[in-house]
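Lecture 7, part B: from sequences to assemblies.

Below are the input chains for today's worked example.
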Amino acid sequence: MTDRVNLNQQLVLDTESDEKQFLTFMMDEEEYGIDILAVQEIRGWEPVTVIPNSPPFVKGAMNLRGTIVPIIDLRQRFGITHIDYGPLTVVIVVSVTLKEQTKLMGIVVDAVSDVYSISEEKAKDVPDFQDSDNAQFVHGLVNVGEKMVVLLNLRKVLDLHDKSSVKSNGG
Amino acid sequence: MSIDLSQFFDVFFEESFEGLDAMESELLNLEPGKEDQETINTIFRAAHSIKGGSGTFGFTAVSDFTHVLETLLDQIRNGQRQLTAEHVNLLLKAVDCLRAMLTALQAQQEPEQQDANELKQRFEAILNGDSCADNRGDESSKFENKSEDQMHLPITFQVDFKPLPYLFKTGNEPLYMIAELSELGELETRALHDELPKFKQLTPDDCYLYWRFFLTTTRGEAAIREIFEWVEDDAEISIVHCGGLFDEPETHIKQAESLQSVQAEPALPVEINAPSPAVTEVKTESATGKDARKNADPSTTSIRVGIDKVDSLINMVGELVITQAMLSQIGEQDITESSIAALQEGLAQLAHNTRDLQENVMRIRMLPISFVFSRFPRLVRDISQKLNKQVELKLIGEQTELDKTVMEKLSDPMVHLVRNSLDHGLETPEQRIAQGKDPVGTVTLNAFHQGGNIVIEIMDDGKGLDTDKIRNKAIQKGLIQELDDLSVDEINELIFMPGFSTADNVSEISGRGVGMDVVRKNIQALNGSVEVSSQAGVGSTFTIRLPLTLAILDGQLVQVAEHTYIIPLISIVESLQIDITKVSNVGKGLQVLRLRDEYIPILRLYDIFNHKGAREELDKTLLVVVETDNYKVGILVDDLLAQQQVVIKSLEANYQRVDGISGATILGDGTVSLIIDISGLIKLSGLRRPGSSELLVDLKTDEGVPA
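Predicted structure of the full complex, as structure tokens:
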């Protein structure tokens, strides 16, 4: 009985881990990927309302058809030099479950790139970044053709309560 | 065959709680000796539906308990028994007990049986004590835990059950009743089909069959009647006693006689237990009731809405759709002079429709405040009995409407205030007579609308707040210094400080030192305020002010640098240009403005929120004077913009709590604007109350409690 249950679970796991679709986007010449199922929509950048006393990577709040959605600049979150927002700058609205609450948040990235089907098994562990704060945000690395894509752990990226990851950046 | 009944649980609980509320309020109206038939009927009906429902859903504990209750009520209703004060007390306790049981069941827990069983035994003692009228005085028989109808010998009844043709349409199924009958004893069933029409004339959903049953049972006729009671009006039912295994018709007649003799003489209160254990019982019951209530899941509340309100909403949505169609039609045309005029007209209509719709949707959430008020007669009755005080409760403005969410959160603070009034405010009858007052004290609850607010006053004509005592206590607790010169109002205000209680004896009713500060915090969480005014020897009045709804707020838009914020209009006292000559610096960069007789601390919004590019010169800016908890501060802004109603949206839902901000809204141009939380802002600024070392809003106690 228990054997069969285990087998079943394994089967389920196998099918699940088979191939997943990832949306990739560009930031500072690098390609990053997030689980496409977390993506709600992609919008152009528009000015937001500043939330007082918030960390610098929180750009502010946006009206998404009546819902207030906070917008996070991923460059600043990762400590990459800030660039001015241009016509290609997009906001990817994602939903993440943080502490059993599902939250909608927007992330500002340079440009949206592609959608890939990637087997998670192929993802390689992150090499030891040693002193880098950003290591926790990375779920794994995969090669797609010639390119390397960094798969992100959205839950870590968007957990603003995690004090260790709050890094102020003047940029 | 089997239907998942759990989908109806919510409705059942809702209706049962309503029924219990109705029972409670009607019971309080009952005066023994002067009982009104209609009142008793109402109570009986409520008990009856709870019994029926709980039986259907398999909550046997509840239905068994209600059954005894119902039996007693039935006897009172039929005039077989005189109502006594003890009955009323016992019934009230039963209501509490049922409420606790249902609450536990709602939270999917096993209900506490002990209280129920105790009460049930006492009910049965009353019932049995009477039905065995012959051996009254025999103590043991009184407590026999047997219900009346189980004591019969096996008797055979002939039951004729001839339902009217439309029986099925009322949702009744004879098969179930037959099954239930067969549980009572030995059953012989004959189905009679001589009324069955020709096949062509047969309507498939009519009932043409009727039945004759022969039932041999030890249970009485009442048990049979009970099975058919849902269909009483939809069928011809006759129950005839036709002899049985131990055919003793004479004993039956004797029993009937003895019952009649009982009718004649009123039930003696002697049969009821001494009142002292009754008091202790109340305590345990209320305690368990509260616990159970805490565990219940409060998130699944629902609201009953009149169908007319829903219909009018549907109409309005219809109009909205038409307007929308009209506008999109205009949008497709080429722009001409006339189409612009039509567009403007259409937009005006849209605005009108939207406003109507908004008002009506809000009205759905509004309920009369009597939902809160209705629990006080009982509370006052219980407490005044316990305290040996005579109290008259006056309710004014019960029809004042209030948002349901606000109402639910208002209940606890109000209970606290009323308890305080009874315990600390009102004097004992002796003291009142000595002071030349009416021995009966008065507590008045008054609700009315004022502007966009609802105001609730809790007044008593007691001794008022004892300012000396409060002052001494505050010094003792280190809340104020001995030398502080405080006005009477300021002293009274001290009772809202955390950990403050003047009760000499910590009683069950009040005085545990967690009191008024919690009341104030709860009411502030609703964007409201609470104040006290008092006059020694005349009485005290607590005034609660609340916004009518939590969803919409009248706001003043203000500008700071390029940012737009909203200050709730209700807290704004005035807005003015600063006269620099009246501004003085008081240490640590704090400036105050002398405004008439008051000193108003100036809070620079751009400073608190870390915004750059705002105007800093006092003479080029505006000061918005706001008041919270009887304390005024000035908020420095660049400019005042429009005033408008804003719909409150949660910032917390997708982000997190932000200090100094109570929520967000969306302005007409689609941008987000943040709503300022005045007390949060003061806390953020670190401003302290003058003459005290305490922060204006206590930091520690507020932490971790989301606003």
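Note for the exam: Confidence is low (pLDDT under 50) at residues 10-14, 163-171 of chain A. Keep this in mind when comparing with the next example.
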